[in-house]
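pipeline/complex-builder :: batch 7 item 3
reading input block
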Amino acid sequence: MNLSRKWLNEFVDLSLNEYDDKAFAEAMTISGSKVEVTEDLSQNIHNVKVGRIVALEKHPNSDHMLVCQIDIGESEPVQICTGAWNVHVGDLVPAALHNSLLPGGVKITKGKLRGVPSNGMLCSLKELNVTTHDFPYAEIKAAAILGDYHPIDPAKPSISADIQAGDKIFGKVVAAQVTALETVSYGQYKLRLNTGAAAVETRTDCQNIHVGDLLAYDTGKDHVCTLDDLRAEQREFPHCIPDGIFIINEDCKPGDDVAVLLGMDDHVVEFEITPNRPDCLCMIGLAREAAVTFGKELKLHEPVVKATAGGNIADMVKIVVEEPELCPRYTARMVKNVKIAPSPAWMRERIRNAGMRPINNVVDITNYVMLEYGQPMHAFDFSCVNNQEIHVRLAKEGETIQTLDGNERKLSPSMLCICDTDKPVGVAGVMGGANSEIEGDTAMVLFESANFNGTSIRRTATALGMRTDASSRYEKGLDVQNTYKAVERACELIELLGCGEVVEGVIDVVPKALQETTLKLEPEKINALLGTDIDEATMRRILLELGFTLDGDIIHVPSWRGDVEHYSDIAEEVARFYGYNEIPTCFAGGNTTSGGFTPVQQCERQIGQTCRSLGMDEIITYSFISPSYYDKIRMPADSPLRDSLRILNPLGEDTSIMRTTVLPSMLEILSRNYNYRNRSAALYEIGKIYLKRPDGMADEPKIVSLGAYGPEMNFFRLKGWVEALLNDLDVGKLTFEAEPANPSYHPGRCARVYAGGTEIGVLGQIHPEVAKNYGVDAELYCAELRFEAMFALKGGIPVYVPLPKFPSVTRDIAVVCDSDIPVGKLSDCILANGGQYLKGCDIFDVYTGHHIAQGKKSVAFSLTMRSDDQTLTDDHAEETVKAVLAALERDFGAVMR
Amino acid sequence: MKQQMQALRASSIQTILDCDNAERLEALRVKYLGKKGELTGILRQMGGLSAEERPAMGQLANQLRSDIEAAIEKRKGELSSAMMEQKLKSEALDVTLPGEPVHLGHKHPMYNVLDQIKDIFVGMGFEIVDGPEVELAEYNFTKLNIDEGHPSRDWTDTFYFSEDGKILLRTQTSPMQVHAMEQKSLPIRMIAPGRVYRKDEVDATHSPMFHQIEGMVIDKGITMADLKATLNLVVEKIYGEGTVTRFRPHHFPFTEPSCEMDIQCHKCGGKGCPTCKGEGWIEVLGAGMVHPKVLSGCGIDPDVYSGWAFGMGLERLAMGEYKINDLRLIFENDIRFLEQF
């Protein structure tokens, strides 16, 4: 919402001298109306003055430029050259003088144009950042000046180069020379022409004509020809364009500031209004907030309508609200004998400074009322309403409407429409129909000022993809009581602008009784919530200023404050104007709570810490993936993990299902780093997977996901990480089993890890096919560990074990066995059969090749033996080794090498 | 004999002091003091001396022995420290050569900031709670006083799993307020950080998945003054002591009164600069008093208990802390990015 400070002054005395933009913005923001930006419009334009052309001559060194002497209200005129032809002696023009600034940051300085000094620039509308919507009278029309004729094909000119006054061009069109020119009124000229045979007088509204010019004159129609009349293209008359200097037709004099003329002597404040305060999307709403914020009086105006036209609206139109839930109120008035014209400058200026475009008087009035009262309005050309009936109903299947923006819209049966007996003439609260548009010939206007259900309007606007100034207000839920005042104001403005006669009577359809909210004023409860000691009188003052009424301790909530329905809302109103920053800061006594991290959270932190000390970086990946990612990791077609929660309205395929495995997320990040040519990477994430439950919700277990690649990466490094992680948590004895069947992993380099019989997860090298699917031609290593299992098995507080008092003895043994026997089985066997003194068994060599038979391998172990109550003798050690070797031979046929 | 000893003294002491090698020094010791050494040789003549001469000569011999021994010890010490010096010299390193690399992993920058915030709240007696991301509309919206027609419920804004719109991806961590109030005994002091989801296309400031931190206190006698005091303290811990704050009225359906909290721009001190977009203030979080409707909807009597809640965006906080200018970096997980923190 853009607020003009100049317009605001009509409601609250808040001059810029008293409160500059910064002070105004600060105070409004603190009281709850957040200011986004403030803009001093006059900063965009500087030293551009109204000038009167007192003399005009052709430029000595140019065939198209003019040299003007401009009276700018000083003793001497200034000389400015221009290339535009629509200027005449006596015209008022915007003159950008030496060292001036134009919108868009353009700086103008004096200089020479083809040797002739020019002390500035005359400006077009565009150079002033306005359009003919802002100044509709400044439309420019150009005659075809024969001296500017440039044939498309020089060999075959349509008009000969030496054409003279009186020469025939075609039909009754002859060449004529201008011998005298007089400005009759704005944009209207009287010409004396030499047509060769005679001297004639004629009138024209073409603005680019000067004495001496040779024109095409239609002797039959008594008409000066334009390019269209000659069926000429623009490039044949390059300087006869419908553009030029803005000839000012306003109440002003030479020397006046053009910024003021354009309404740019204003400051605009842009507010961010929260959705609960649609009442602040207008001048009056913001003025009320400003008045309370600054302790000023709010000056409101009651519209008065004279209604001078005959008849009564009740006899002229029938209005039927078929959907009372969606249209709680429909208020209408009629205007006859409408004269469509531009609206006055002050209205255009306010509309423009609020960020909208002026159109014509009737349309501008509807927009002006919306900006002033916050009530969107619509004006129908009543002649286009069949059978003089308005029906507020839902669209029928297959109905369409062409909206004012020219687009054909397909309507659906959930959309509320304004219709006549046959067809929709507008989409309720969104946009009117082209079939009932206000145009130049509109004579009878029906003003609609209605209240619609916000949600319904929002859904319609969204479905049609057209959020308008009206719909964005309606969607927040507007004040039902505002429709009447707004339509009255519109009719008052019709009379003020003299653009029509208002018909007696108002049609006001209110299908349901309107409810008023009342609350009890409970100062002690408010203070208890805020932690303040605000006296009741202050509370009452704030509420009254905001438009609440008080009846004893009963608060009557004003109709525009639909957001206030509870004592806590009253507390906020009081707090806003008492000042949030005046509320003390004070810790509540209350009961203390111990707080702290839960065991689960501590375990997560511990795992993260270990991962980092192992050299892995933490990553954060999206919870949603593409279903095609399951193919990428070669998940079997019948895997239950493919049954993911599916987002019905995803942003795209890539983020359309909730992951049931973290593997694709990790692989994506590994491959991204690989593609970025990072030499190696080691990553971890403690992330959730989402497993569908029968009730449609999800179990969301956490997975510890590890991933790595790089020259130093191999299976055993990964396994070492997993062992370190699990041993750090003291989950108990780990066992690893080969897992050849997981299709995402290398069949010979994948293991399942168990702790005390519970499966913790899987680890290994990613299957080369999967790596290829991710565009990686290197070995990728991943592990997926179930956090819940890790946490469940996490060891308790360690109990001290006394340190050994007696030295240990080591013996190395090497055995030869079949090469397919897992070494893990051998060491399990050794530990199981070594007897009481065997304390440890480390594998230090696995060897195949020379000296070892085909299909066999040699495995070397280092056995550590110790007793807790004596120094071991060689005999003890030999006994242990003997028992171990016997067991290895018995169980695996492994013999000492 | 006396002369012999004097001659031995003269030759031996100087020879010892000139010796430049530990082995030769040992040989000298044997030569002078050994069983067959020169001093022993001289002493063998003692038998030919008279009983009167013997003690004086003996004393002289002992003196000579101990002087030679002292000279040897002295020289030995000198030689050994020279050797040590030489050894150390030969072992000297170029200490400017790099250390052996140890690669430590890095915590994700956003979780660095999150952990910092968790620690702050835990220190104030808060607990940390975690909850479902696949959530019921009932918890994400209805129980938070967000009515059926509210725009945030639109299918253009929220991800849904069921056609009836009952199951969705939570759009905020605020449903954790409801879970906490329903499940926990009073009083409650909690924060609930986590992932949230909204239908925003990815760009430099948006992501369909991002993180929020919810916080809530419910107890008897909790006021807006307590909200301000607590959040001021938290902000001082995050942004440094003396950070200036302000509270502005705002709107959230589930708090009333509601506010947003700004900190004065640390870069320009409130004058207005590009960091604060000229406003002088930077918005840090939204907060408010838990709406009485929300309290009673969760079975808590608003006439007895009151509370406050806040919510803040983690990404923006981390981006501000580390001057990260593009949100996409957070989820891209390029190790060249991760290892900067």
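note: Chain A has 20 helices and 48 strands.
queue -> next item
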